[in-house]
């Protein structure tokens, strides 16, 4: 077995591989020509500098696994790896403690004015009276995102005597209770928090979630910590709130542009700025290296796949047959995931037709990844384990003969405290994912792009009003699908509209203002 370490890793990482009898290890300082070196390699370890593209993998016909010592895999062409039967692994969670510890350190720094205290002392000043701080004890900490890092923060904050509230639609109530976190809506989270810390991934729903509108709903003097992604915050809005006193302080480790050349936070004495160092500890870097080495060893020796970001090895024929239905599962799951309003307690997946005879675990994981995709990093390999970790129950049903006239039908239902939402879909023309039914109402629509879902009373004039509103806002309609309930005596109808262009909150409010419309949702796929 040959392993190529294309970038510098910790000695402990090297030791994991070196302990295997007969394994040849090539370290980064021994690599003269990477393409030549991987020609007979079984495993490749990279960090963030080396680009693992299709050309490099083409030069490595024996390559079975690429290990990314870290989380982001932007430098690895996972799709090309999947086609070539190469597993791509990363190490999510290995730096969770490091990020959580910096988060708490920044909270304490804000509470006790530590940066200013340090600066004035170095300047030879004794400003004891002006540096009176506050305690964390008794304060409410709002945690937006309860993945590995968010829960690590919550556990540590409890020891300071803080009340912990959190929001994450993809964490079960049971897991929240175990960690003494009270689940609330985003609105209540923003309204109640004395300290607000962000631990969510970047999605269309979370981009700019801290903005002028949400900041105005927060307690005056709230303190905000961001060790997640800079794009979660509209920087100009936060800077204005810091200047006005609406926000008492902020501690930022990440920024929209890194490194920031110009920033609205420069010069503000109520802001702590650090250069994206949350995961940069000796222990975290070593943990990342050891974890990737162990994962690769287990895969190469036993075939055990952990934290893969792509699909396991498939024959070319299997990949061609299953790929469209994995895409369907992911899109259908993502569609429903944006419908669920409460904490998801269980996911039910039903397969009808020929797909029920195949490797449905791959379709299942794609569907779960779609449902949880607006949470932290979830993929088609780790989706089931992430769901289990979050206390979400999984149920699967298989039927060889599909109902409804389509050869293969996939159905997903999400159960939460607020109720059940379900949808079914199929693949048409070989690769077109289509919605067939939503909450028991037959409706055919493409699962692609920007979708508006409307529920309304089945009365005349609704379609015209909707078309007029969208037209007035220069929004083009790509597809307009309609359905009506034959089991609802109250006359409920449903529309799924595929649109071109951005749908603003103003447009959504205009649609909600139509008397006959009872629900409006925007879904981005």
TrEMBL record:
Ranges for domain ACT come to 451-525
Function field: Catalyzes the reversible oxidation of 3-phospho-D-glycerate to 3-phosphonooxypyruvate, the first step of the phosphorylated L-serine biosynthesis pathway. Also catalyzes the reversible oxidation of 2-hydroxyglutarate to 2-oxoglutarate.
Pathway as given in its UniProt record: Amino-acid biosynthesis; L-serine biosynthesis; L-serine from 3-phospho-D-glycerate: step 1/3
Q: Which reaction does it catalyse?
A: (R)-2-hydroxyglutarate + NAD(+) = 2-oxoglutarate + NADH + H(+); (2R)-3-phosphoglycerate + NAD(+) = 3-phosphooxypyruvate + NADH + H(+)
Any one GO biological process = L-serine biosynthetic process
Q: What is this protein called?
A: D-3-phosphoglycerate dehydrogenase
Instruction: Give the residue spans that cross the bilayer.
Output: none
The organism that produces this protein has a lineage beginning with: Bacteria, Pseudomonadati, Acidobacteriota, Terriglobia, Terriglobales
Recorded superkingdom: Bacteria
Presence of keyword Repressor: no
Alphabetical UniProt keywords: Amino-acid biosynthesis, NAD, Oxidoreductase, Serine biosynthesis
Give the UniProt family note.
Belongs to the D-isomer specific 2-hydroxyacid dehydrogenase family.
Query: Under the GO molecular function aspect, what terms does this record hold?
Result: NAD binding; phosphoglycerate dehydrogenase activity
EC number(s) per UniProt? Answer: 1.1.1.95
Please provide an example of a Pfam family that matches this protein in its UniProt record. ACT
